[in-house]
Design goal:
Blueprint lengths: L7 E4 L6 E5 L10 H7 L4 E5 L17 H12 L6 E5 L1 H13 L6 E5 L8 H7 L8 H11 L7 H11 L4 H8 L6 H4 L6 E6 L7 H5 L6 E6 L6 H4 L1 H15 L2
Parallel strand pairs: 2-3, 2-4, 4-5, 5-6, 6-7
Antiparallel strand pairs: 1-3
Helix pairs in contact: 1-11, 2-3, 5-6
Length: 251
Amino acid sequence: MTGLPLHIVTQGDPAQPPVVLLHGFSMSHAVFVPLMAVLSDRYHVIAPDLRGHGLSPKPDDAYADSKDWADDIARIIAPLDRPVLLGWSMGGRVAMDYIRHHGDADLSALVLVGSYTGPVPAATKANRGPMFDETQREDGTAKFVRACTKDPLPDALARTLLDQALLCPHHVRLALADRDEDYTADARTIATPALVLHGDMDAIVPPAASADHNIQTATHIVYAGIGHTPFLEVPARFADDLTAFIRKARP
């Protein structure tokens, strides 16, 4: 199935360089709202809800084909001038779907945050596991959201992320559990500048999985004492690191 009309949130001046943000498993664009507020005075920021997530369509069967995910991103990128493509967690996997089927020639840069290009790590499967049990849907989701950061988020932000994660229905989560793509070969084809960021206290995706990314053009930044969401845990530093990288990649 292709051509789903995704819900997309944009912020900033369309005349500025475009940055596309892809969220992680069971989340939505809402995870990026604090980051978008910081970046929007520098860039045109585009944040979709991926298929099955947030306010985007959630059909029964539309999640198994890597090309469907790739084509969703291709449609977003088509009108943009060489955007930076940033994928967090599962969003990095969707970015790799795009590169597998469309290459990286239309990108100015790739950013992977708390993500990986090999098979799904065991720790990732373990932390998501309770979310696949419909009988403990809210409790399992709350535990997953809490595991995304080393220290607790402010209550209002944590509640927002939980509410957004609960918008991802059970059948979508089960379908995503079966997606265990290995993008190792695709990563080796990347020629565009890449930035890989990871917290060394990440409980969802072990830092070792990020270090073994197989992207020859990558710069790797590790955040000490930070978990799976550095853009929420150290937002100012993250925004500065991202901006410095984009200025080099898109002078």
